[in-house]
Each structure stands twice: as structure tokens, then as C-alpha cells.
Design goal:
Largest sheet: 7 strands, mixed
Shape: globular
Distance between the termini: 54 Å
Bound molecules: guanosine-5'-diphosphate, magnesium ion
Number of strands: 7
Helix content: 40-55%
């Protein structure tokens, strides 16, 4: 592996049973990574556990925030610190082991060979979701098809949370100026990279649903994402076309 500096942001809310295997597997997958755990005052004590792991393993720090502020906000904070510290590649990974840390080198390799954004994708050939119920899979799959249609981006998995960003593209898209949380955040970031002319590569992954702890996904998060996608698509296509017509 080359010497790119890789920063990993791990958002956590009540992941006490997952954080230890996660950081150990991350270290095994890529020993040089720097890990930032962004914890939103998890009642189960995830932050304390992460700190203890940092003392043992090194190169792990914990950003403790006062209250649950959402996934998008956690990533905005994590990426900003990584960029300020001069890291080259920013990884996003869920703490619940749905994303296999062993895939980190493949995501980093995609950035090294030219991608500005490498998405760990469930819906390209080779990708899979082995253990989701049919309804959950259908919601995610068709939600993604809808997002791609509205936004006109040829990406199969815009809601995916397992990603690697080149630091320079994050700076170019003003990621700190995004507002959405949940899946909306992943879609907004993908769309901004596409609009900025960034190169996006989908790297096939297997997404295994969590075994421990519980999901924070809610209908509110799904509804936010779908409403935002509809609005962005309308704003950027219909309104722009109307303005162009009015100007000519
Ligand atoms: N810091 C922080 N992390 C969060 C928040 N909501 C979810 N997470 C973390 O984000 C990741 C994905 O959340 P999860 O509940 O597994 O969502 P799902 O995979 O869509 O069901 C996990 O690591 C969660 O602990 C939040 O409000 N703040
Ligand atoms: Mg999950």
C-alpha cells in the first residue's frame, strides 16, 4: 500500500457491543489508518469504551458531542477535522459492522487510481445484501432508483454509507454547507460530487445487517431523503429549464 494518509470517521450512537470488533478489524485491514469516533453522548457508554480502545491501540480519538445530532452532522464534523489535519482520503463507515472493514483497502485503492468518491455499493454486479428482509431491500433498492432518476446521476447506490472521499473533492463541494441527515446526507454528497464533475466509482460490497444493537433508521429519515431528492431534481431540472426558456 502506498503512503496516502487515511482518516476514518465512525459515527456512533449506542454501539458499545460493536465498537471494539470494528476498530480492531479496521486496524487489521489497514494498520496506518487514523480513527475518529464521533459519539453523540450514547447512553450505553460507547465513548468511554472507544477511549479505552484508543489508549490500548493508539491513533484512535473520540469526539464527544452533547446530544444526538444525526449522522450527517457527525460526518460533517469528522471530515472537517480530518481535512484540517491534512489527511488525503476520508473514509465513512458505520459502526455496526454492516460494512466489512476488510473492504477499506479496496475503497482507498479506487481513490488512488483516480476516483474522487468511491462508494461501497450494494447494487452493482458483485454487490449484495445477504440478510435483509425482502421489504427492506425493496425500499432501499427502489429508493435508490428513484433518487438516480430525479437527480439524473447514473449511480446505483447513492444512499450507501460506506465511502472513501478524496480530500480535495470534499473541499470543492463545500460539504460543510450540506444540511441533511440520514440517507439524505449520502445522496446530497453524491449529487454534489457529480455536479462538481468529480469521478465516482462504485466498488461492490456485501452489506450485512447488524447483529448487535439496534438501527436508528426511521421513517422520518426515509421521508427526508425522498422529499429532498424530489426537490433537488425539480429545482435543478425544471426550474433551470424554465429560466433558460424565459431568457431566450
Ligand atoms: N454520532 C451519531 N451517530 C449516529 C447517529 N445516528 C446513527 N448513527 C450511527 O450511524 C451508523 C448507521 O446507523 P444505523 O442505525 O445502523 O442505520 P441503518 O444501518 O440505516 O439502520 C451507526 O454507526 C450508528 O451508530 C447520530 O445521530 N449520531
Ligand atoms: Mg446499520
Amino acid at each position: 500500500m502506498s503512503n496516502v494518509k487515511v482518516w476514518v470517521t465512525v459515527p456512533t450512537y449506542n454501539e458499545i457491543d460493536n465498537i471494539e470488533p470494528l476498530v480492531r478489524q479496521l486496524r487489521d485491514a489497514m494498520p496506518s489508518v487514523h480513527i475518529l469516533v464521533v459519539d453523540d453522548n450514547s447512553p450505553d457508554g460507547t465513548a468511554g469504551k472507544a477511549q479505552a480502545l484508543g489508549a490500548e491501540l493508539g491513533d484512535i480519538e473520540v469526539l464527544q458531542r452533547p446530544k444526538k445530532m444525526g449522522l450527517g452532522s457527525a460526518y460533517r464534523a469528522g471530515h472537517a477535522i480530518g481535512i484540517a489535519r491534512g489527511y488525503d482520503v476520508m473514509i465513512q463507515i458505520d459502526a455496526d459492522l454492516s460494512h466489512d472493514p476488510a473492504d477499506v483497502p479496496r475503497l482507498v485503492a479506487a481513490v488512488e487510481r483516480g476516483a474522487d468518491l468511491a462508494i461501497g455499493s450494494r447494487y452493482v454486479p458483485g454487490g449484495s445484501v445477504p440478510n435483509w428482509p425482502k421489504r427492506r431491500l425493496a425500499l432501499s433498492y427502489w429508493g435508490n432508483r428513484y433518487a438516480a432518476f430525479c437527480l439524473g446521476v447514473p449511480i446505483r447506490d447513492t444512499t450507501a454509507g460506506y465511502r472513501a472521499y478524496r480530500a480535495s473533492i470534499l473541499e470543492a463541494i463545500d460539504f460543510a454547507g450540506t444540511h441533511s441527515t440520514g440517507y439524505g446526507f449520502q445522496i446530497e454528497m453524491t449529487y454534489r460530487v457529480a455536479c462538481a464533475g468529480g469521478t465516482i466509482e462504485e466498488v461492490p460490497i456485501a452489506f450485512t445487517d447488524r447483529v448487535r444493537g439496534s438501527s436508528k433508521m426511521s421513517w422520518r429519515i426515509v421521508a427526508e431523503a425522498m422529499l429532498l431528492v424530489t426537490w433537488w431534481g425539480f429545482r435543478d431540472r425544471v426550474l433551470r429549464r424554465r429560466r433558460r426558456r424565459a431568457a431566450s
